[in-house]
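User: As part of a screening pipeline, I want to sanity-check one entry by hand. Below is the sequence and the SMILES for zinc ion. Please return the complex as structure tokens so I can compare it with the automated output.
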Amino acid sequence: MTKETLEKIKKDLITRKEQIEKELAGFTKKDEFVKDNYRSEFPDFGDKEDENAEEIATYTDNLSVEYSLEKTLRDIKKTLERIEAGNYGKCAYCGKEIAEDRLLARPTSNACVECKEKLTSQ
Ligand SMILES: [Zn+2]
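Assistant: Here is the complex for your manual check:
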């Protein structure tokens, strides 16, 4: 992989990380005690029964969005750490180089296609 490609991937990852952090900030509070953990805030639409039901529905939706954003954020941070450490693009299982087009399509991949297939077919 060329230095330019790596820089491009790094830039894209940082942009995505900022987007996700902004999105999370819209409906969560950052956990003061646990690093990289966010807590969905319980919405307040009112005290009527249908408003309460709506609050619970929104909260439940927010929770699942929160979990998936948190997971992506963790993957991005781990990937950025791998880039900093200079071992980005190597399969975590067999150590081979991951195909560049795979990394461009999914920059947070840490397994080559063969290992991924083995892992998911188990
Ligand atoms: Zn592999």
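Points to compare against the pipeline: The first helix runs from residue 3 to 27. The chain has a mean pLDDT of 94.
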